[in-house]
Amino acid sequence: MAERIDDRTPVLLGVGAVRQREDDPRVALEPVALMAQALQRADDDTGAPALLTRADRILIPRGFWDYPDPGRLVAERVGAASARTLVAEIGVLQTTLLAEAVRSIATGDADVVLVAGGEAKYRAARALTLGVEAPTTQQPRDTRPDAVLAPHEDILHPLELERGIVLPVAQYAMMESALRHANGTTLAAHRAELGELWASYNRVAASNPVAWSPEPRTAEEIATAGSGNPMLALPYTKLLTSQWNVDQAAGLILCAAGVARALRVPEARWVFPLGIAESNHMVPLAERAHIARCPGFAIAGQRLAERVGIAAAAADVLEVYSCFPAAVRLQCRELGIDHSRTLTVTGGMAFAGGPLNNFVLQAMVRTADVLRSQPGATALVTAVSGMVTKQGVSLWASRAPQQRFTYDDVAAEVATATETVDVEGDRTGTGRVAAYTVLHERGTPRRGVALVDFADGTRTLATTDDAAQVAALLEREWCGHPVTVTAGGELSVA
Question: Cβ contacts of residue 386 below 8 Å, gap of 6+?
């Protein structure tokens, strides 16, 4: 097979993942050390001698940590002295980062590229609880990476910021209500549906050796609020949300096929990127006319199918990005994926662990392992940034590609296909609920939130802290029903 592959064909050659669960933060490794460890495992995975030292570039997505140039710290630890560094800021799709790595190899800009990401948020939480310092490597504040990828627009609408509706759990819960209404599902049936969906992810986590929370959970246990599983934002309990208080890291080694061939890495270890399509068109949740739809995934999926000749839903292996159930349900709807299929190889972000801005790298480690065990198979790995604000789809294979790697940003097409509404903060009167949720504090309902559409086509974001109003929001379905908004965006439903 190798003789038929062009030397500049990009290959994912080595993968490694790390899970650290050390209760003493003074002993636990910091994020850059975890990333270096993951890359060392990826180097071992290749079976090639000292491949890390040949790295031309090292790419890292921004996390909760504040290293100015984490790539340089990681490069020093793995012996990649000459590697150029890049940081992808929050709001950049992880598919964009992978495309950057693959394209630099395909164009001859690099022969070996390292991609790594990691968090030590569990370590930080333990340090806070114990009142001790967790040692962290310092860099001069004026240190800069060689390159930076940054989003070109804001994720949140000014009114969302003004009214404090900024947490992902709140915005995804509102999306969930719109999906439920669009599907005509009752509250009870919807709750059961969410439990079953997440239980299917949980079953896979049990077989993932680096999953953060692989303990078996039933659908009823996941969807039912209780002392160990508090409601966060209707209908999301804690077990229905991403778990990002984790110490995890992932490392990928990509190289040109000519390098892999010269190092005599067995062809059975090669994993090929076939194509990536993504949309970087950004529309805040409050402005989306159709909250239960996502044109970005539909268009990106179609473009990738045209380029590669494989529909997203036809991939043999799936890893559907799983920060919240609404994200999974939107993706399946737009990409034509049957919910009854196994949608993950990791177990998802609630159970495998969801390190900030890094989960797709964790997913790629498992995906590569699965593809290697299934010669000729293809895999779909999706990505989300923000509140399904950006959408990415990628296809990978354990067989040699029939064409060159393709990359498309379909933002222009998505902009044309995406309908928006004007959002007015001072709008009052009677309108209909487009989406809503009830935010909880320590399991107690505290605040009602709704996107309200008016007959003239405008929309506002309304809230209420009134106990009676909040209680009314919990009693029945409110999407599509009339409510009143008064001065200051005060919501009244009863």
Answer: 91, 155, 282
* Both tokens assigned to 416: 């044309």
Token output for 376: 């000729």
SS3 397: strand
Cα–Cα distance between 181 and 185 in angstroms, integer? 6
Rounded CA gap, 364 and 383, in Å?
Answer: 11
pLDDT of amino acid 1: 44
The mean pLDDT of the chain is: 96
Q: What is the pLDDT of residue 3?
A: 52
Q: How far apart are CA 50 and CA 22, in angstroms?
A: 29
Q: What are phi and psi of 190, to 5 degrees?
A: -65, -45
Give me the phi and psi of 93, to 5 degrees please.
-60, 140
On whether the CB atoms of residues 389 and 168 are closer than 8 A, the answer is no
Are 102 and 239 spatial neighbours (Cβ–Cβ below 8 Å)? no
Cite the DSSP H helix spans in 3-132.
31-46, 70-78, 94-106, 121-130
DSSP conformation letters of 231-285: EEETTEEGGGS-----EEEEEEEEEEHHHHHHTT--GGG-BEEEEEEEE-----G
Query: Using CA atoms, how far apart are residues 188 and 193, in angstroms rounded to an integer?
Result: 9
Q: Which amino acid is at 417?
A: A
End-to-end CA distance of the chain: 69
Structure token digits, residue 27: 């002993």
Name the strands in the sheet holding 272-279, side by side, starting at the edge strand that comes first in the sequence: 317-319, 378-385, 390-397, 272-279, 406-409
| Strand 10-19, strand 247-256: pairing | antiparallel
Summarised one tens digit per residue, pLDDT across range 237-280 is 999 999 999 999 999 999 999 999 999 999 899 999 999 999 99
Cα–Cα distance between 28 and 80 in angstroms, integer? Answer: 24
Q: What is the pLDDT of residue 4?
A: 76
Q: What is the pLDDT of residues 394-429, one digit of tens each?
A: 999 999 998 999 999 999 999 999 999 999 999 999
Domains of the chain plus CATH, in order, are 2-154+244-417 (3.40.47.10), 422-492 (2.40.50.840)
Query: 431 with 455: CB under 8 angstroms?
Result: yes
Q: Which residues pair with 254 in a beta bridge?
A: 12, 113
